[in-house]
Amino acid sequence: MRNGEVAQVFYDIADLIEMTEGDRFRPIAYRRAAREIEAMPEDIEKLWRQGGVDRLRQVPGVGQAIAEKIDQYLREGKVDALEKLQKEFPKGLVAVMRLRGLGPKRASVLWKALGITDIADLKRAAENRQIRRLKGFGEKTEQKILDAIKLHEEGQSRTLIAVAWPIGEEILAFMRDHARIDRAAIAGSARRMREAVGDLDLLVTSPEPVAAIRVFTTMPRVKEVVLAGETKATVILDSRLQADIRVLDPGSWGAGLQYFTGNKDHNIHLRTMAQSRGWKLDEYGIFEGERKIAGETEEGIYAAFGLPWIPPELREENGEIEAAAKGALPRLVELKEIRGDFHVHTNRSDGVDPIEAMVQAAVDLGYEYVGISDHSQSLVVANGLSPDALRMHRARIRAVNREFEGKIAVLAGTECDILEGGALDYPDDVLKELDYTVASVHSKFTLSEEEQTERVVKAIQNPFVNIYAHPTTRLIGSRDPIEIDLEAVMEAAAATGTAIEVNAYPNRMDLNGPNARMAKEKGCILAVDTDSHAHGQLGNMRFGVGTARRGWLGPEDVVNAWPLDRVRAFFR
């Protein structure tokens, strides 16, 4: 699928238009189209081949001008409008603009004043203390720029799980279509559902290993072959992601799957247990001398140690082996148990699709309910709703609920900003008219830990707040978590019956797995939400569930795994 690639074209156009300080509404239109294309479950190239520009215009947010640009890109690999904009600025300046705390105006100042054309130039200037001399910058801003560059470099070295996993699935589907593949699986940190991965580990079995390796190394997505042996290979994909494949013997499938899934410490623990029994454990199986004890299945590997099968998400040496030995592993929540999603945006604020499209996507997922939670008034950049506009929006949600009666329940909510002192962006008499309220921080990220914690706890104590969303506000690779005492926040949430969110938006994954586990141990209920801004993004729930499983959460711990009547009672 080329959706991400096409979407990036329009993100770039939007960024460059902002650099020109041109029409402020055009970037919004391009970004909305980009978000929609990025979130589409269908392959945009396939739609284009089916009906050209006319078919593309059926994509929400894509008008004639944008459809023509997509058409040109898919035909020629370029867009004239983008190339024209790129000629106005150095190539690397867009990356500078995207760093945390900068933006088009500051990037333009840095370019004109210091000749900074890319992140490498910016880093040198900051390290040489040149930036602090510019008007409007200063020493603190210079240090923040260095921090932002470090965050960017860390993010560049890893790929979000929501990006990497579909690529892995696509590769395995290609392998099945073009080689004799009997079994195939994604392993490594991706199978453990880490929020970002360094590379992709893929495992297959095949009666023709050499042919399978040849198919893997000659895939259209491969840009560089790093290694190609008879049973293993490493390639660099067009997305810059490294992918490794192993062709396993069927009798060692389970051993290989276990070996290439567990993290280093988990596997060392198991090998130590094997050595204490006089065994050897490796990627081929468990052996006592020449005798093979287990290897064909993962269950068999763990059973040899008297353990039940340990879910992949837990295999990080955080007490899972001890819990398994005691029979105390939790039953983890599963994707099929999720009944709804509470954090969903529409085009009434900063989403791409109308309410009906978002609700239909929830119906298609088999949900029992879905909550619409557009932004509150203070978030101007997201087209937040005034109290009067929210009331009109609520009426529209109620009407859509009637239209979908018998298929799904549509709940009227809001994502309400937590203001600096802990007050909410809407008064209580507005919030009490809704089914639920999601509260979140979208401003004042640099408050001290004490101020930030007090602010959030005060909001959580409001009786109309039901969910505290993306609790640390982090954006992977672009924004650090806020300074906040999460334990104090969790204790307040447990005391007030406020759910803490596991936000599944790809660059958030907030709470992460360890923090979700801490929330459970503090007595909190959690909500796994997608923070969707386009209908295709509701499918990111699987990554949120993966994170919840990393946090040892079961269905009883997750409010949107509950039936509707219990959800309503919890919100009340």
Description of the molecule:
With 572 residues, this protein is of the alpha/beta class. It folds into four domains: 154 residues, DNA polymerase, domain 1 (Orthogonal Bundle); 90 residues, 2-Layer Sandwich (Beta Polymerase, domain 2), CATH 3.30.460.10; 58 residues, Beta Polymerase, domain 3; 237 residues, Metal-dependent hydrolases (TIM Barrel, Alpha-Beta Barrel). The chain contains 24 helices and 18 strands. The strands form five sheets. It has a five-stranded mixed β-sheet, sandwiched between helices. α22 links the parallel β17 and β18.
Question: What can be said about this structure in brief?
Answer:
Helix 1 packs across helix 5 and helix 1 (about 5-20) crosses helix 7. With about 575 residues, the protein is of the alpha/beta class. The chain has 24 helices and 18 strands.
Main attributes?
five-stranded parallel β-sheet; DNA polymerase, domain 1; Beta Polymerase, domain 2; alpha/beta; Beta Polymerase, domain 3; single chain; 24 helices; 4 domains; five-stranded mixed β-sheet; 572 residues
